[in-house]
Amino acid sequence: MIYLDNNATTEPDKNMINAVMEVACQWYGNPSSSHYYGQVANDLLDQNRSTVAAAVGCKSNQIIFTSGGTEANNLALNNKNIICSAIEHPSILNTANHKTLCRVDSNGHLDLNHLEDLLKMPRHNQVCLSVMYANNETGVILDPSLEINKLKAKYGFVYHVDAVQAFGKGIDLALEDLGADLLSLSGHKIHAFKGTGALFFKDPSLVSNLSFGGSHEFGLRPGTENQVGIASLAHMCDKITNNQFYQSRLQNVATLRDELETKLADISVVNGNIDHRLPNTTNLSFEAIADVDVFVETLSDLGVFVSGKSACSTGLAKPSVTLEAMFGAADPRLHNSIRLSLSVNTTATDVELACDLIREAVTIICS
Ligand code: PLP
Question: Which residues of the chain carry a pLDDT beneath 70?
């Protein structure tokens, strides 16, 4: 099987699983308990928080552990008046807050002129601008020249970045240059366990509780911590920050993705800007295909796992919100495009075989 759906989720790292077994089996104390077992658990939690903070580029007391990217996004936006891009993840678009959507262009970049028009509009409350670092379906970086930070200096909004797809993929997020006040990340996109994530917050006053209880996570996200999940996230953050071999594997992913695109260039076209995007993602449109669901199913039967829409929207009849915002509702690319997302585990053989099988799928469908 060839797994090319790593933006949906990644294979848990084998070394990580071995490392966190010790936390699961031996150091299972409650970090809030005052006895020795609790204290060891609490020390581990502190260590893991500083490892994640080092990977993000912030202080330890600016990281809240969450159950994933969805919760981090929900927590970041709670009780705020939002402007966000039209191609955000449902964990942004479906929150209850009042939202104003900003357009993107056909390259998948944020329309900065439209954003400035929206920011100029009079409002009673301070605005929170929420923009994903990179899109989950195309991989395109929404604000590659960091213009939002300049607009922030001019208009003074709170800036939330959904970095779920960008974090840990070999891109330097440079928190300072980004100007982010809040930033979300998710463990299962970087080979840690599902149900793990974190929210960076510049200042506690920027976070409004979603849940209520004890003083865990600075009182901002109460509940006994998911020690094993947190250890898995921290293990991967340590690899991302300190393991040169892992870093070189991350750098190789873009080469494989580019090879894949080159091999399929005669039957497909890349959707979105190719110069500013995640190293692991491509979104390809195939003129010969009329129904993306049939294409994804045929590929699955042949042992190649890709995505036609984002995993969270699969099963819904509606086509990709991202491609619709980029190209308009009538564009055929909404019905003939697939996302291929690689990881450090993808090999050159995987790419070669995947390309052959994609050709075979097109032939089967068109015959
Ligand atoms: N944000 C983006 C851009 C995503 O792609 C996803 C998941 O696909 C999420 C948020 C949600 O993350 P999680 O699955 O950890 O809840």
Answer: 309-317
275 Cβ contact partners less than 8 Å away, ≥ 6 residues apart: 144
Q: For ligand 1, pick from 65, 66, 70 the residue to mutate: most ligand atoms within 8 Å of CB.
A: 70
Nearest residue to 161 (alpha-carbon basis) of 69, 235, 234: 69
Task: Provide the pLDDT for residue 317.
Answer: 55
- The sign one gets for the Cα dihedral 52, 55, 56, 58 is positive
* Closest among 195, 206, 114, 220 to 160, alpha carbons compared: 206
Inter-residue contact 65 to 49 (CB < 8 Å): yes
- Cβ burial of 277 (10 Å; 0-12, 13-18, 19+) is buried
State residue 27's pLDDT score: 94
pLDDT of 316 reads: 54
Closest CA to 12 of 196, 149, 266: 196
Instruction: Supply the pLDDT for residue 311.
Output: 47
Q: Residue 286: which residues within 8 A CB-CB, separation 6 or more?
A: 267, 268, 295, 336, 337, 338, 362
pTM above 0.90, yes or no: yes
Distance CA 28, CA 113 (A): 52
Q: Is 343 near ligand 1, meaning CB less than 6 Å away?
A: no
Residue 179's SS3 state is coil
Q: How many helices (H) and strands (E) does the chain have?
A: 13, 12
Catalytically active residues are 312
CA of 223 to the centre of ligand 1 (A): 22
Q: At what angle do helices 348-366 and 292-301 cross, to 10 degrees?
A: 120
